[in-house]
Write a structure and sequence with these properties.
Elements (H helix, E strand, L loop, with lengths): L1 H31 L4 E2 L8 E2 L5 H4 L7 H14 L18 E4 L2 E4 L4 E2 L5 E9 L3 H7 L2 E8 L6 H7 L4 E6 L4 H15 L1 H4 L2 E8 L21 H9 L4 H7 L6 H10 L5 E4 L5 E2 L3 H9 L2 H4 L4 E4 L2 E4 L9 H9 L3 E3 L14 H6 L11 E5 L11 E4 L16 H10 L3 E6 L3 E4 L9 H25 L16
Parallel strand pairs: 7-8, 7-10, 8-9, 12-17, 13-18
Antiparallel strand pairs: 1-2, 3-4, 5-6, 6-9, 10-16, 11-18, 12-16, 13-14, 15-17
């Protein structure tokens, strides 16, 4: 009996030693070597590196890169039954299934909008930490973008530590570009890929077209997100661009897609070029479970936004921000382009709080918005039961402000948070509008005439006297 136990113990110890040795060797291999793995034939042979490039590992040391990249490979290979086998890394489709690098779209599936103009595929890619973060955080960041602005996501995700829901507009070959570039982003920037869920939306007239796009030596280009995107965008022909530029961007449709795919109680809805400061998500999370937030059922909390000279580093706290503002290198968002866009936030009052509230202090309400304007378009945090964006407004003009206006009419109040803020990198200046943009704005202004009557009928209120015969100014 004793001899048998000794044998069992010996076998067990041998197995433990062997397993430990194997893990050590594997770890050393991952740290010092590289094994490239072709992912599911997606994106025409886009290669996912076994390890994160050394230029990023020091900045992202808190992330378990090996586990993360293993998830990417698993997501791509296991969901594509046609991947591999031809030795060329080319894509194979079966019955309309288009897959690659974890981005799964079945052309027959998806859902149409109410007028069957646009089809959406939800959660075509979901990062390995998205579910856990959704359970742990009260807030999710929702944003939307066209393909040519995807590079901003590296800045948006850099300091945001809660889940992100991103809707991407992908007509025609921009679908293939999106797949290739998003594969690049989630590979090179795990702090984005681990916590994001992507959704694709495209118009009925321009269904997705796939191309065998390749990003050669991907791991050597992880410090070139803008250059990589520019190269991919060259796949758009001049013929395509002739209609693409004039096509109305369905802002409100993709805003709703991004917001409704957040599964948290609270949603921070912002544009893709609005950059959170370090600690914003954690500080918001703490505030949103406080009595101030939980006891107010119809509150929207405004996060002030400033634009910063692109020659300046982005400030991380209010004192640094105000120092830049004093030098003329930072100012309230859209102050020069369209002052009504953010004016009701009352930035001067927010800035005055610096004397009484430390920049690193806990988040509180600085003041209430008391001078609401029709064209007010704040970036705000609110519960997910706010009125949706009206999807009849396409392109530019009357898109965001009409949703905020309906919130105001329905009884929501807006409260400015302090000392947190978000940033837009680059000072915006007035430019002449192209004819197609003015055409979209005029069409939306005509739509608003019916929209305001619907809002009045729905709530029986007209706090801004919009039912008078006067027409609103141009947006």
């Amino acid at each position: 009996m004793v001899q048998m136990l000794c044998k069992v113990w010996g076998v067990g110890m041998f197995s433990i030693v062997a397993l430990t040795t194997s893990n050590i060797l594997l770890t050393l291999r991952l740290m010092h070597g590289r094994e490239d793995v072709g992912v599911g034939g997606g994106c025409g042979g886009v290669v996912i590196p076994e390890v994160v490039p050394h230029s990023w590992t020091s900045a992202l040391s808190s992330t378990n890169h090996t586990e993360y990249l293993a998830f990417l490979r698993s997501a791509a290979i296991n969901t594509d039954p046609t991947a591999g086998g031809d030795g060329e890394g080319k894509q194979k489709d079966t019955e309309g299934v288009v897959m690659g690098a974890g981005f799964v779209v079945h052309e027959v599936m998806g859902r149409w909008d109410a007028r069957r103009r646009y089809k959406t595929h939800d959660h075509v890619f979901t990062g390995p930490q998205y579910t856990r973060l959704t359970r742990a955080s009260p807030v999710c960041l929702a944003t939307q973008t066209s393909v040519d602005r995807l590079f901003w996501l590296t800045q948006v995700a850099r300091y945001w530590r809660a889940p992100m829901s991103v809707a991407v507009f992908t007509p025609d070959v921009e679908y293939a570009i999106a797949r290739a570039y998003l594969t690049y982003l989630v590979t090179c920037f795990p702090f984005l890929g681990e916590k994001v869920s992507f959704h694709f939306t495209y118009p009925r007239e321009h269904l997705p077209k796939d191309l065998p796009l390749t990003i050669e030596h991907l791991e050597d280009k992880c410090d070139q997100p803008l250059a990589v995107l520019k190269r991919l965008l060259k796949q758009r022909s001049s013929k395509m661009l002739s209609w693409r530029e004039r096509m109305p961007y369905p802002q409100n449709i993709v805003r709703n897609v991004a917001r409704k795919n957040c599964a948290t109680e609270w949603v921070f809805l912002a544009d893709v070029d609005i950059i959170p400061i370090p600690g914003l998500s954690d500080r918001l999370a703490t505030f949103l479970v406080s009595n101030t937030a939980t006891k107010c059922k119809k509150c929207a909390f405004v996060v002030p936004t400033y634009e910063v000279d692109e020659r300046s580093p982005l400030p991380h706290n209010r004192s640094t921000l105000l120092h830049l503002a004093g030098k003329g290198r930072a100012r309230p968002f859209h102050q020069k382009v369209f002052v009504h866009n953010q004016h009701a936030t009352n930035f001067s009052r927010w800035e005055a709080r610096e004397l009484e509230q430390p920049s690193e202090g806990r988040v509180t309400v600085s003041h209430d918005v008391t001078n609401f304007e029709f064209f007010y378009e704040p970036f705000y945090v609110a519960r997910d039961d706010v009125p949706p964006h009206d999807e009849r407004f396409l392109g530019y003009g009357f898109t965001r402000n009409t949703q905020v206006y309906e919130m105001h009419v329905s009884g929501y109040t807006f409260h400015v948070l302090s000392p947190i803020f978000t940033l837009h990198w680059g000072m915006q200046v007035k430019r002449s509008r192209p004819a197609w943009r003015e055409k979209q704005n005029n069409a939306n202004r005509r739509l608003f005439e019916g929209f305001k009557r619907e809002v009045f009928a729905r709530y029986g209120k007209d706090p801004l006297n919009m039912m008078a015969t006067k027409k609103p100014r141009k947006a």
